[in-house]
Design goal:
It is a single chain. This protein is α/β, with parallel strands linked by helices. Helix content is 47%, strand content 10%. It has a five-stranded parallel β-sheet. Strands 3-4 form a two-stranded antiparallel ribbon. Bound molecules: adenosine-5'-triphosphate and magnesium ion. Magnesium ion (MG) binds next to helix 6.
Length: 374
């Protein structure tokens, strides 16, 4: 079968594998194992004890539990303790430092579900947070529990689960403030209903994890009243090169496997990639010289996605592992985006900083600098 027939056939094939299942599905075996062996006391409404939830996130190689978040384990302890109190947890930090990943892992470890998620943005409304109505049923029957459409906050309260609020500071202030009474009084009114259904009282296990990016609108743009109801934790970029390299290598390998690439880029190529990202992020080279930092976000998350792209380029264009030249081609779209200044800084970096280090991959990076557009 060829050409148009193959396309027609593909169009009727059911959707393929889910690109990124939620954490509780990706790591279902580990969650089950931890729950079975967990003898510690659990806070009311939690599926795991605090130590087991921590092992789920930071890993326990001896017990077959993978490390999912790279960072200070005491941050995880503080985050879990916050979630067991009556205050919400606010994860703040630079873009791409795994705030969303951490909030997903925490929700999966505490509640077994990470999908009660509100995505904050300029257009987020209270309906998307609390509840709305099925209008056909509303017109036919009036307001009732049948016509009520429960949004993540209402569901999390009623079911006693953790609700995630992504990028909360991108929401209008009055919308953010709809969290006030759920967080302080632990109750949500549904004034359209009567009797016991008019008040939804939060069950044990309910809490909120919010994330906020320090690059977009700052956390300053949050009312003092709401700030008081959260414990803040800052998530920092990974401090050392080797740890970041190991993470990028493992994550890129997993993404490439899913994309059908059997030969990932070599480690020395990834080392050049991660070093480049770190130097353009911090404005300091490995030998201590200062240089221009980019205004574009050069986070670990971006490094992982560029490593994925480098592997895809090499494999699908030439049938070989991605090289330093592929890296140059992929960097333009990530590092320079739409900023001519960033592109110029990147070009300067490839001209000046790739030469003094020696090593085959740095030489290849330097040699490929002409592949930058413009
Ligand atoms: N410390 C870390 N531990 C594990 N993975 C990390 C870490 N830092 C970055 N990553 C990588 O980055 C990805 C997570 O990025 P995520 O979207 O969670 O970041 P974010 O802080 O929410 O970013 P944004 O502010 O843009 O929303 C992970 O899937 C992983 O590949
Ligand atoms: Mg995020």
């Amino acid at each position: 079968m060829e050409g148009i027939e193959a396309v027609a056939e593909a169009a009727t094939v059911p959707a393929g594998a889910v690109q990124r299942p939620p954490a509780e599905v990706r790591h279902a075996d580990e969650l089950r194992l931890l729950a079975e062996t967990d003898a510690g006391p659990r806070p009311p409404g939690w599926v795991l004890s605090l130590p087991a939830a921590r092992r789920f996130i930071v890993g326990d190689p001896g017990a077959g539990i993978s490390r999912k978040f790279v960072g200070d384990p005491s941050l995880i302890d503080r985050a879990l303790v916050s979630l067991a109190t009556s205050r919400g947890l606010m994860l703040v930090g630079e873009p791409g430092t795994a705030k969303s990943l951490l909030s997903e892992l925490l929700a999966a470890a505490v509640s077994g579900v990470s999908t009660l998620t509100i995505q904050g943005g300029a257009a987020t409304t209270e309906d998307q947070i609390k509840y709305s109505w099925n209008y056909a049923l509303l017109v036919a029957e009036g307001p009732s529990t049948r016509s009520l459409v429960r949004a993540p906050l209402l569901r999390g309260m009623a079911e006693g689960r953790v609700v995630r609020f992504e990028e909360i500071t991108r929401c209008p202030l009055e919308v953010q403030d709809s969290l006030l009474s759920p967080l302080s009084d632990r109750v949500l009114a549904v004034p359209e209903l009567t009797g016991p259904d008019a008040m939804v009282f939060a069950r044990d296990g309910f809490n909120v994890i919010a994330t906020a990016n320090t690059r977009d609108r700052g956390v300053n743009e949050m009312s003092a009243a709401l700030k008081r109801r959260f414990n803040f934790e800052t998530v920092f970029p990974i401090p050392d090169l080797q740890t970041e390299l190991a993470l990028v290598e493992a994550e890129a390998a997993a993404l490439l496997r899913r994309s059908g690439v059997t030969a990932p880029p070599r480690r020395d190529v990834l080392e050049v990639l991660v070093t480049t990202f770190r130097e353009l992020r911090t404005g300091r080279t490995a030998r201590g010289d200062s240089m221009d930092r980019l205004t574009a976000v050069m986070s670990t998350a971006e490094a992982v996605s560029v490593a994925h792209a480098v592997g895809l380029r090499g494999w699908f264009l030439r049938g070989e592992p991605g090289t330093a030249a592929d890296l140059v081609a992929c960097l333009a779209g990530t590092a320079a985006k739409d900023s001519p200044e960033d592109l110029a800084k990147l070009r300067r970096y490839l001209e000046q900083q790739a030469t003094w280090r020696g090593g085959e991959q740095w030489r290849a990076l330097h040699a490929a600098r002409h592949q930058l557009p413009g």
